[in-house]
Amino acid sequence: MSTVVSADGTAIARTRIGQGAPVVLVDGALCHRQAGPLTGVAEELSTRFTVTTYDRRGRGDSDGAGVVAEDALERELEDLAAVIADAGGPVSLFGMSSGGALALRAVAAGLPVTTVAAYEPPFYTADDQKEQARRYHGELIELIAADRPGDAVALFLDRVGSPPEMIGQMRESPMWPGLAAVAPTLAHDSAIMADADLGAAVPAEPLSTVDVPALVLYGGNSPDWMLDGAQEAAKVLPRGEQRTLDGQDHDVSAAALAPVLADFFSRNA
Fold it and tell me: Judging by DSSP bridges, how do beta strands 49-54 and 11-18 pair with one another?
C-alpha cells in the first residue's frame, strides 16, 4: 500500500498490482480495497494490466473518516485525479455501482482517461424513483448530522432493497461497526448520484461531453430499472455502448466481469 495526496491535502490509500497498461478501479458505496468486489476484479485484470485500486476518502486507510466534505463530488474528483496522476495516466477507468457514476463524471470533468466502463450505475428513469432518491438524500443527511451512523447505513440498505430481517441480522454482526464507521461517506455517493436535485437520474448534460469509448454494463438477473438506467446512460454517451452480463446481478462475479473489461480496454487502447 502507498498513498497519494489529494488537492485539499487528504491522503488517499492505493494499491497497485500487475503489469501492462494502467487501469484504475473505483468502488461503490461503503466499499474499499479490503472490503468490496473489486479485489477479485483487480486480480483478474492484473495478468494483462497494471491495476490501481484505492480507498475513497473516509474509507479504509484513506483520511477523511467521519467527515462529510462540502462539494463532495468535486473532492472525490480531485481524489481520483491524484490517483490517476500517480498511476501515470491517461488510464482506462472502471467503476462499480455509484463508483461507476463517479467514473463517468470523471471523464466528463476532463480527467485523463482513454476508455471508461461502469457496472450498474444506479441511475433512475421513473419519476417516482427520482422522488424517492430526493427523500432518501434528505433523510440521510439528517441521520448523519444527528450522529446516527448505524441508522444511516440501515437507511441505505433499505433503499437498495435489503429485507428488514437481513438488516436486523447485519446490525448484530461483527461487520456492522465497520459499516457504521464509513456511514458519512454515503453522503458523497448521494452527491455523486445527484440524488438531491436530479433524483439520481442520468446526468445527461455532462455525460454528453464524454468523448472516449464508454461501456455501461448490466447484470441479466438484476432489476429492470437498472437496465433502464444503463441503457439511457449508454444512449447519452456519444461513444457509449451497453452490454448485459447473463446470469449476473449487482453482486457480479469477477470471473464474469473482468474478461469483458479486459477486451473492451484492449480493443480501445
Answer: antiparallel
